[in-house]
Batch of 2 targets.
Target 1
Amino acid sequence: MSVGGYAQRDYDEAFEAGHAQALQEIRDRGVGAQRISGERKRQIEREGWSAEHDDEHKNGELRDAAACYLTLATDRWPWSLADWKPSDAPIRNLVKAGALIAAEIDRLERKAARSDV
């Protein structure tokens, strides 16, 4: 369970100890960015979506897939609907969208770096 996205245990321990600073540190961890980074790592390590694989998506597919997770609409879903896996948890869908956006940013950065050579 979580409170505002923070681990319930961490929140309870800080609250019970009366440590306002500890609570603030929990909030300042950048939990959203950590979740997105963790999801991106999962996509690479478990799903096999490597940089080389992402580089094949030259027509905005990663961006469009992210938009679908943001809006929960499949009208722009670039792949098979069998691959569409939205969650009942709004934060999870945002994390998936964020990881896809990160993948698209990385793809565009690699493309720009190759153009500079």
Target 2
Amino acid sequence: MRINLKKEPVDPILYEINTRCWLREMSDRLGRPITLARVPDEEFVNWQRLGFTHIWLMGVWTTGPRARELALNEPATSFSRQPGSESS
């Protein structure tokens, strides 16, 4: 019988990342275009080494003209900042 003495976290440890910014920064750093399909394994290994058990890739969806229109014209349904809405 083998006993695993390695302590596993009781709760998941989540790292949330702005995917578009992350891919752009990584592309700049590596000097070549990086897509989700081409992220080097070392990126995920590093997060695991830091103790993260889950990665949330925020913003992984297709945007288009309708999404922009909603963000600009319907503030109740978006998080866009409208002119004059800044609080002092």
